[in-house]
Write a structure and sequence with these properties.
Length: 271
């Protein structure tokens, strides 16, 4: 059974209930309709009437399918020098009511996590993996490619959720998307719906978020989950109870970072 059939099989009932149709034959690359169907399954607020098309159109029109330097095997809808998003500043986007497009870039932390899992698939093989704040989804997709039993990607930005869906389709990686803030939720890694591995790529860029997330992730580590953080030296990385697993040198651009390479470490967060 191919990937598309598995997707249809898994979601058929729910899709039908919501009147969502999956195209009978999907072309090799992502289709907006399919991505919309996937996202609609996870939209938490049924009153949210914004048409999915507007998110999809925005992602597709403002990105190009390309790859991140450390992970050439994963295709992603990303901002490049050729796309308008590259030039758009946070201020001009805010004027239009749009959040900063973190999902349109593949951050060094997420790239390093993806490389780590693709090179050492035994870390996630057969396991249920949570990619917290997945952005473009590079780590989620890598986890799936490395043989994770199931991958859930969480996001709070609906544009990111759409980009995640589109990127999942692009790589035929079956990633479930939750458009919700899961910080504080309990986890039993031994249960059927618990997560054995938790990923957090490049999430220590803002103090309140980093502190809230780290406190929660430590409780998950105490409960037995393997918590992996990919970090290029962001200011709010916790200073203690971290075990360094490996380092990657990630090529970056001066438009986004302060140097053309970022030493990016994979950390295991300890309780
Ligand atoms: C710097 S990006 C990192 C994305 C990805 N992990 C990577 O490494 O490329 C930060 C992302 O975190 C998301 N985010 C922030 N707070 C979040 C929360 N509480 N739950 C889920 N996502 C969140 C943002 O929407 C944004 O896409």
């Amino acid at each position: 059974m191919d990937w598309v059939d598995r997707f249809r099989g898994r979601y058929r009932g729910e899709l039908a209930r919501r009147g969502i149709r999956i195209p009978p034959a999907l072309p090799g690359e992502a289709t907006a309709e399919a991505a919309g169907a996937l996202l609609a399954l996870r939209r938490p607020d049924p009153e949210d009437a914004r048409p999915l098309d507007s998110f999809e159109a925005f992602v597709i029109e403002n990105t190009a399918v390309s790859t991140a330097p450390l992970v050439p095997e994963i295709k992603l809808h990303l901002a490049t020098e050729l796309t308008p998003l590259w030039e758009a500043t946070e201020a001009t986007l805010a004027e239009k009511g749009l959040p900063p497009p973190f999902w349109a870039f593949s951050w060094p932390g997420g790239q390093a996590l993806a490389r780590f899992m693709l090179d050492q698939p035994e870390i996630v093989r057969g396991k249920r993996v949570l990619d917290f704040a997945a952005g473009c989804g590079i780590a989620s997709i890598a986890a799936r490619m490395a043989g994770a039993g199931a991958v859930v990607a969480t996001e709070i930005d609906p544009f990111a959720a759409v980009a995640l869906a589109l990127n999942g389709w692009l790589n035929q990686a079956d990633v479930e998307i939750w458009l919700q803030d899961v910080i504080g939720q309990a986890n039993d890694p031994a249960s059927a719906d618990g997560f054995a591995v938790i990923l957090a790529g490049d999430m220590c860029y803002e103090r309140p978020l980093a502190e809230r997330m780290t406190a929660w992730l430590r409780t998950l580590a105490a409960g037995g989950a393997l918590v992996l953080m990919g970090d290029p030296g962001r200011s709010y990385l916790p200073k203690e109870r971290l075990e360094s697993l490996t380092t990657f040198s990630v090529p970056t651009t001066l438009e986004l970072e302060s140097s053309t390479r970022q030493e990016t470490r994979i950390w295991r967060l300890l309780p």
